[in-house]
Amino acid sequence: MPRTKVTFDTVREIGLALPDVEESSMYGSLALKVRGSLLTCMAINKSAEPGSLAVRIDFDQRSGLLAEAPDTYYVTDHYVNYPFVLVRLSRIKTDELRDLLGAAWRFVTTKTKRTASRPVRGKLATARRKT
């Protein structure tokens, strides 16, 4: 059975079925947001491979995805400090995308602080180490 090609239209269809998700844009790129907060968008940073989707996700979940399926999920230096995973749309199956967007929706709509699991770099990290 031939596999259906996943495009942003597929992402849009799955995403808009989630509560409070709306179509938007981010820096001129197609995007989906939840009550104004970014859920996912086409990755436009030059470090991302063409045809990649940037999806907001918990750092621990991102680590799991990268370990499980590095042919599908990846991250570049630009995204490493942000709760995003890059997805090769040419590699992901529709069911996997549905699960990923559901996890991203839960992450974005959770009201708890997520900064505790976020890596700290730069001047703030240096200041923290000195104290």
Notes on the structure:
With 131 residues, the protein is of the alpha+beta class. The protein is 33% helix and 23% strand. It is built from 4 helices and 6 strands, in the order αββββαββαα. α1 (8-16) crosses α3 (94-109). The longest helix is centred in the C-terminal third of the chain and has 16 residues, at 94-109. The relative contact order is 0.17. Residues 112-117 and 122-131 have low confidence and may be disordered.
Overview features:
about 130 residues, alpha+beta, 6-stranded antiparallel sheet, 4 helices, 6 strands, disordered C terminus
Largest sheet: 6 strands, antiparallel
* Structural class category: alpha+beta
Order of helices and strands: HEEEEHEEHH
What is the number of beta strands? 6
- Beta content: 15-25%
User: Mean pLDDT, nearest integer?
Assistant: 87
- The main sheet orders its strands as 1-2-3-4-6-5
Tell me the radius of gyration: 15 Å
Helix content: 25-40%
Quaternary structure annotation? single chain
Report low-confidence residues grouped into runs of 5 or more. Answer: 112-117, 122-131
Ordered list of secondary-structure elements with their pairings:
Elements: H1 8-16, E1 21-26, E2 29-34, E3 37-42, E4 52-56, H2 59-68, E5 73-74, E6 84-88, H3 94-109, H4 123-130
